Records
---
Amino acid sequence: LTGAWFLQLTGLKMTHVPFRGAGPALQAGLAGDIQILFDNLYPSLPQVLDGKLNGLCVTTADRSDSAPNLPVMREGAPELAKFDVASWFGVFLPKTAPAPVVDELNRQIKAMLARDDVRKNIAGMGARADYGTPQQFSDFVDAETRKFAAIIEKEGLQMEVK
C-alpha cells in the first residue's frame, strides 16, 4: 500500500510485484529481481550499510535516528507533502473494557516505554517509542484506517481471504 500511495500521489507508473511477506520481497531486492522495494527500516538498513541495497529515503514524517542521512520521502517533492507511512504497534482492548482498566494499562505501558532498556531495544530496531493517551491512539488508528482505506478504494483492491 505504501508503493500504491506513492504512485497515486506522483502519477508514476510501475509494475507491482506481489510477495507473500517482506522477507521474500527483500530477498528479491537483494537478488536484483526487482528494482524498488518499500520495506521496514530495520531489516533493510543493515543491507544498506553493507552496500547491498541503496537506501533512497524513509517514508516516515521525520528522519530516523538510525539513518539520519536518509531524507524523508516528502522532502523530495511537493506532491508528497502529506506522505507519512510508518509501521506501528499498539495495544487494543474491547470497547467494553472498564475505563479504570484502560487507564491502568495505559499507565503501565507508559512506564515500560520510559525504561532505558526498553527504549534502547526499540531504538536498536530502528524504531522509537511513542506514547499517548488512549484517545490519542484511537484517533491515530482511525486516521490510519481512513488513509489506507482511501488508497485501497482508489486502487480497487480487495483482500483475498482463504
Note: The two ends are 20 Å apart (CA to CA).
---
Amino acid sequence: GGIDSALVAAIASCAIGPENVLGVLMPSPYSSDHSVNDALELARNLGMAIELLPIGDLMKSYDRTLADLFVNTTFGIAEENIQSRIRGNLLMAISNKFGHLLLSTGNKSEMSVGYCTLYGDMNGGLAVISDVQKSQVYSLCRWLNAGGYAGKVPPSPSPNKKIIPVNIISKAPSAELKPGQVDQDSLPDYDILDDILQRSIEYHQSVPEIVAAGHDAAVVKFVVKLVRQSEFKRRQAAPGLKISDRAFGTGWRMPIAKASFY
C-alpha cells in the first residue's frame, strides 16, 4: 500500500511478468484501511497474485513474551521495529518455502539516513530501488501512470484508472508502525532531504558548501550525522541496483564508526 512497495511491484512485473510476482499484505492494527485497499487495487491493476497475512496476533504474542522484561517502559522504537521484523520473518519464510527471491523495497533516501529496520524491511535478496531517491520514486510512479512503459505491465483499465493507484501517490508517506505516524515526523521534507543527500553523497559537498547552497545548517548537520551513523545498517543490506554515480555497495567505502561526524 506504500509508494515504494508499489513501484517495486511494478518494476518486478515489468521485468519478469506479473504472473511471476507475489505480493504479500501484512496489516497490523496500525495499518490504515486505505493501505490495504490501495495494495489490492495495485495488484488488480498489475495482474499479480497476492496473499493477506495479518500480523495482529503475532504482535500480541511478542507483547506477552516481553511483558515482564518491558514492564514500566513505554511504547517506542522497540515495539515499532518488532512489527517490521515480524513481516520480515514471514517474507523470508515464504522465500525459503517456495524458492522466491525477496525484493527489498527501501529507497536511497531511507537507506541513507537509516530510516529502515535491520532484519525487518531490510530483508531481501535484491534491493531494487536502493539507489533511487524518494523524490525519484514519485516521479517514476507518475511516469508509469502516464504510459511511460508499455511492456509487460497491463494497460490502464480505463483512461481514469492508473497503474499505481492515485491515493498511493497522493497520501503522506508512512511506515504505519504507530498511530498517526508519517515519515516527516522524523525526517525533513523529502525534497529538502534528497537535495542535501545528493549534494553530500554524490557531489561530495561539505556541510558548509551545502549550507551555502541555501539549506539550514542545523538540518544539514542532522542529515549528515544520520548518514554517517547508519553505515552499520547499510553494511548488512541486500545488494542493490545502481543507477547513480555513487550508489551504496561496491562504490561506497566508509568506516562504520568515526570519532567525529563533521
Note: The chain has eleven helices and four strands.
---
Amino acid sequence: MGMNMTVRRLDLGYFIRPASETGGPQPRVEPVLAYLVRHDQGLILFDTGIGNADSGTEAHYRPQRRALHGALAAAGVALADISVVVNCHLHFDHCGGNPLLAGKPILVQDVELATARRGDYTIDELVDFPGAVYEELAGETELWPGVWIIPTPGHTQGHQSLVLRRGDGTVVLAGQAHDFASQFASDHLARQAVLQGAEPPLPAYPHWLERLADFDPRRVLFAHDCSVWEPADSNREDEQGSPDRRQAATRT
C-alpha cells in the first residue's frame, strides 16, 4: 500500500502577490512548490511550476522561476523519468512545466480541464500543447496502491489534492486547497468543534475535509506555503531535529 513512498519538495521559484489580492496593505512573496513522489510503480510529479505568461500577467505577479529540469536534477531525476503528472489545478503557476512533459499522462479533473479550455482562465498554451495527454477524472480515484486523488474544490471548482498512505502515516499534498497551513489548521479545528457539539455560530469549513479525515493525515503540505501542518498530538521528530524545525524540511 505504498509503504515505501517518499516525497521530495521542489522549489520552483516565487511570485509577488499584489496587495489588491492579499487582503492587506502589503504585497506578499509566495513560494511555488511542487512535489516529487517516489512509488514502487514509478514517479509522480505533483505540479510543475510557473509557466511563461503574457506581459500583463508578468508585470502583475513578477514571477521568478527555477527551471523544472534543474530542480528535478537536484533530486537525481530527469524529465524523462517522470511517470505521471498530477496538477492540483491549471493556473499558470501550477502547470507551467507541463509542456516539458509532452507524452506523459496528466491527471486532472474533467471540470478543471473544461474550465481551462473555455479561455480567460490561464495561459492557453500551457493547457493544449503538442503532445499533451490528459486523463480526465470525474471525482476521486486511486491512482496506484496507496495513492489517492481527492477533489478539493474551492480555489477552483476542479481543484484536487493527492493523498499518500505511507507506512508512517498519511501525507496530503494539498496544493492550493488552502493558501496557508494556518488556514488548514483553522478549518480542521472548526470541524473538530462541530463534531464535539460546540454551540453555533461556528465558521464553515470545506465539505471535503470529511473525506480527508478518513485518511487520518499526519502531514499536509501546500503549494504556496513552506509550512507543514501536523496534528496537535504529533510528537514525532524527523531527521531535521526538533519539532520546531520541521517546517523547514524539504523531504518527508
Note: The chain is about 20% helix and 30% strand.
